[in-house]
Design brief:
The chain is an alpha+beta fold. It is built from four helices and eleven strands. The chain has one domain (2-186): Alpha-Beta Plaits (2-Layer Sandwich), CATH 3.30.70. It has helices at residues 17-26, 64-72, 74-83, 122-136; strands at residues 2-6, 8-10, 36-44, 53-55, 58-61, 88-98, 106-115, 142-150, 155-163, 173-181, 191-192. Strands 1-5-3-10-7-9-8-6 form an eight-stranded antiparallel barrel.
Length: 194
């Protein structure tokens, strides 16, 4: 599993209806994209209490070929054409879990990034994080959750989809999910991934 995200931070007075229209009219284009586990179309808006207006899609890929086909194909080129070329972050997936609300349509998501300190060996720190992730994914309202690592910056990333319109306030950065493409979600391998 490969996790990927880019963030397009927009001006404070940007008409976010443009982003919502983009998702409504183009979101379905990845509903059957080969190699894609899921894509959560994430939005944050200042008028809803966010510090920024932002479009920040998050992807879980089943295959590197699918991810590469997207990045070098027409889908991502539309982003580049409309917003400029964003920095694309990638993480190595280490755990994926379906939650108790797996059958629900997610309305919210959270992202939490945590540095892996130097005091603990990376393998030990990641193993502890995977065990914690498995417990956290069993909480009420969790649709699905992924844990990934950026070994360049030694950072853990926990990404969780939540049932309902709001995510818990203490779970990290919060986003709304106006659409979810999930052609290969059933193929995302659950549990620890090494």
């Amino acid at each position: 599993m490969h996790a990927m995200q880019y963030e397009i931070t927009l001006p404070a007075d940007y008409d976010m209806a443009i982003v919502h229209d983009r998702v409504a009219t183009r979101g379905h284009l990845l509903d059957d994209f080969p190699g894609l586990g899921l894509k959560a179309y994430l939005v944050r808006e200042r008028e809803s209490g966010s510090p920024v207006n932002q479009y920040a899609p998050f992807y879980l890929w089943n295959t590197a070929e699918g991810m590469n086909s997207f990045l070098w194909g027409p889908g991502f080129q539309g982003i580049v054409r409309d917003f400029g070329r964003p920095v694309v972050r990638q993480w190595t997936g280490v755990s994926y879990e379906e939650g108790p609300a797996a059958a629900a349509v997610p309305g919210a998501a959270t992202r939490r990034r945590t540095p892996l300190g130097e005091a603990v060996a990376p393998g030990e720190a990641v193993a502890e994080a995977v065990a914690r992730h498995a417990r956290e994914a069993r909480r009420d309202g969790v649709v699905a959750s992924a844990l990934a690592v950026d070994p360049h910056h030694w950072e853990l990333l926990a990404f969780t989809l939540w049932a309902g319109p709001e995510a818990p306030a203490d779970e990290g950065e919060r986003f709304r999910v106006p659409h979810l493409s999930q052609p290969g979600r059933a193929g995302l391998r659950r549990g620890r991934q090494w």
